UniProtKB/TrEMBL annotation:
GO terms for cellular component: plasma membrane. One of its GO terms (molecular function) is amino acid:sodium symporter activity. It holds the Pfam family Na_Ala_symp. The chain crosses the membrane at residues 20-44, 65-91, 97-120, 141-162, 182-198, 210-227, 297-317, 343-366, 409-426. Keywords: Cell membrane, Membrane, Symport, Transmembrane, Transmembrane helix, Transport. It is found in: Cell membrane. It comes from Fusobacterium hominis. Belongs to the alanine or glycine:cation symporter (AGCS) (TC 2.A.25) family. This is Alanine:cation symporter family protein. It comes from the Bacteria. It is a multi-pass membrane protein. InterPro entries: Na/Ala_symport.
Length: 446
């Protein structure tokens, strides 16, 4: 193990294995839930209505729904498949419960950080807005050095995520079609490059269409599997709760691991508190900051409670039909094969490709305002696109456990910096929520 890997593992051990981030995320979620008076529960129905409101955004502006699709594209990605498989493989069924907990609490966190992102965003000289954690830390707290650190940590995280994405895709395509990993990597790089080297609106338009279709298709097949195994559903749910609080896990010293894997992979999937999704929220053309904050809060619930749970249930309902020892994407593909036949392997590979492709595009959208924060010149934008394609290729042709560690390191550090910036600005988000409720809910009775 070289010095770099040792260093990465040292910091990850502090943040994740000693449950520092687990505690931070749950405590923050609890505090924000209390301060917003349970906004994610009280206004859930209203959140759903907001998605279907007619957009007031212009042709070249990002609508509220499109901002939701962009952030959901990044959330509803490889984390919903590979991330959940990793959680269940290493944390057991109980990790699913802790993914639910972190999602329910983190939904309030998503509201707070996204609302703040709109309040403190900058006007984009090329049209629209630029914003996110780097911007509200600088504009709201006057801490530009901390903002720069956030961008650096985000780039570290995304470098790892891009490789995880491509490795998951090439593995699944090799299993489904026996295609050489190098060929799949090249295909992924070419398709990604075609979209990335277009303008921002091209990314928005692709995600606007892709996200609802891929999520709907995936849930349709999963719903069929759940109905098919409805007699096992009750026992599976009991199994999740027993392992979440199980005496065996506690006495065996694995209770902490169950929680840690659930929270870590939950955050990896829904991103709440990490500061990434506010980059999309800040770009939205909305009449009130809290409107987009509420929509982003809903995105967390859709991602984890619905789609991550769907993946987990497929694995758990199929556990007696899967060969022992399987992990990662082969485990999920075998689970689908056991339920719907050989075409399930192909379906999983294609869905993973769509999910991964959407994550690549979503992160590329996030990167734009962060890179502009460092420099208003265009070359960093083009360099990041090339960097993305290189990471995708390297991840696709090789498998390195360091990649997951790198993604966890960047994710953990950017989350800590983001929450340092969020906490002092919480009163602004609460003030915005109260104003929104008085103007748009209490007044209209929605």
């Amino acid at each position: 193990m070289n010095l770099f890997e040792t260093t990465v593992n040292f910091f990850n051990n502090i943040m994740w294995n000693h449950n520092l981030l687990v505690v931070i995320l749950i405590v923050c979620g609890l505090i924000f839930t209390i301060k917003t008076r349970g906004v994610q529960f009280r206004l859930f129905k209203h959140m759903c209505k907001l998605l279907f409101e007619k957009s007031t955004a212009g042709k070249d502006e990002v609508s509220s729904f499109q901002a939701f699709c962009i952030s959901t594209a990044s959330r509803v990605g490889v984390g919903n498949l590979a991330g959940v498989v990793a959680a269940v493989s290493y944390g057991g069924p109980g990790s699913v419960f802790w993914m639910w907990v972190v999602a329910l609490l983190s939904s309030a966190t998503a509201y707070i950080e996204s609302t703040i992102a709109i309040i403190y965003r900058d006007k984009d000289p090329k049209g629209g807005y630029r914003g996110g954690a780097a911007y509200f830390i600088k504009n709201g707290l006057n801490l530009p050095i901390l903002s720069v650190l956030f961008v650096i940590f985000a780039l570290i995280c995304w470098a790892g995520v891009f490789q995880i994405i491509s490795n998951s895709v090439t593995e699944s395509f090799h299993t489904a079609f026996d295609i050489n990993k190098q060929i799949t990597s090249i295909i992924l790089v070419v398709l990604s490059g075609f979209i990335l080297f277009g303008n921002r609106n091209k990314i928005v338009r692709v995600l606007d269409k892709l996200v609802p279709v891929m999520a709907g298709l995936y849930l349709l097949v999963v719903f069929f599997i759940i109905i098919k195994n409805i007699n096992l559903l009750g026992a599976t749910i009991v199994d999740i709760f027993e392992h979440a609080f199980g005496v065996k896990q506690f006495l065996g010293g694995t209770f902490g691991s169950v929680i840690m894997f659930g929270v870590k992979r939950g955050l990896f999937s829904n991103e709440a508190g990490s500061g990434s999704a506010p980059c999309a929220a800040a770009a939205a053309e909305v009449e009130h900051p809290s409107k987009q904050g509420l929509i982003q809060a809903l995105g967390v619930l859709v991602d984890t409670i619905v789609i991550c749970s769907a993946t987990a249930f497929v694995i758990l309902l199929s556990k007696n039909n899967i060969p022992a020892g399987l992990t990662d994407m082969p485990l999920l593909q075998e689970a689908f094969r056991s339920q719907v036949g050989d075409w399930g392997v192909i379906f999983t590979a294609l869905i993973l490709f769509l999910f991964s492709f959407s994550t690549i595009l979503g992160i590329s959208f996030y990167a734009r305002p962060n890179l502009y924060f460092l420099s208003n010149k265009e070359w960093p934008q083009e360099a990041f696109k090339l960097f993305t394609l290189v990471m995708l290729y390297l991840g696709g042709v090789g498998h390195n456990s360091l990649v997951w560690s790198l993604a966890d390191l960047g994710l953990g550090l950017m989350t800590i910096v983001n929450l340092i910036g969020v906490f002092p600005l919480v009163p602004k988000a609460i003030e915005s929520l109260n104003d929104y409720e008085n103007k748009f809910i209490n007044k209209k009775g929605l």
